[in-house]
Amino acid sequence: MRLHVVAVGRLKTGPHADLARHYAERLTWPLSIREVEERRKLSPAELTEREGALLLSAVPPGALVVALDEQGTPLTSDGFAQRLQRWRTEGVGDVAFLIGGADGLSAAVREKAALRLSLGGMTWPHLLVRGMLLEQLYRAQQILAGHPYHRG
Questions:
Q1: pTM of the predicted protein model
Q2: Whether residue 152 has pLDDT greater than 60
Q3: pLDDT score of 5
Q4: H, E, C per residue of 88-104
Q5: What's the CA angle centered on 98, arms 7 and 65, to 5 degrees?
Q6: pLDDT digits (tens, 9 = 90+) for 31-78
Q7: Which helix (H) or strand (E) holds 86?
Q8: What was the pLDDT predicted at 84?
Q9: DSSP result, 113-132
Q10: ∠ CA(67), CA(73), CA(78), 5° rounding?
Q11: CA–CA gap between residue 95 and residue 63 (Å, rounded)
Q12: Secondary structure class of 63 (helix, strand, coil)
């Protein structure tokens, strides 16, 4: 199973990028990270729609879409690992994790998602979400491998 992280915005050099890179490098599953960005000045509603279109255009054909959404379904780390394992067992070839911009996701992205995933009830800074997702993907990998990294 190949993992794709598609995110609105570019991570500049610094601690947020270091965190994301740290966990991305530890994953053994094939991983691609793609950043999309709309540079035109648009109203917030237009920007959210445009960012949604950019996110969806970066999804590989046939990929299962997971949208990170603060109003989505929260999963435990074990539950997340089991969901990934189930998709792998079912023969899902590609899973694309979509991270919207600061104003959230478009309706089109929410509708396309097989899972709307929440990282918890708290609001997280947009720049931390990539690193948090990659850490949870790494944790899921370790859970499924029976590695003691996860002691939950």
A1: 0.95
A2: no
A3: 98
A4: HHCCCCEEEEEECECCE
A5: 150
A6: 999 999 999 999 999 999 999 999 999 999 999 999 999 999 999 999
A7: helix 77-89
A8: 98
A9: -SEEEES-SS---HHHHHHH
A10: 100
A11: 5
A12: coil
Structure tokens of 50?
């445009």
Across the range 16-32, mean pLDDT stands at 97
Buried b (16+ CB within 10 A) or exposed e, 71-88: ebeebeeeebbebbeebe
CA distance 35 to 132: 16
Q: Are 69 and 110 in contact (CB under 8 A)?
A: yes
Classify residue 146 as left (phi > 0), alpha (psi -120 to 50) or beta.
Answer: left
Nearest to 99 by CA among 141, 62, 132: 132
Are 95 and 64 spatial neighbours (Cβ–Cβ below 8 Å)? Answer: yes
Which phi and psi angles does 31 have, rounded to 5°? -135, 135
Q: Token pair of 45, please?
A: 């509603």
Vertex 125 angle, CA 53 and 117, to 5°: 60
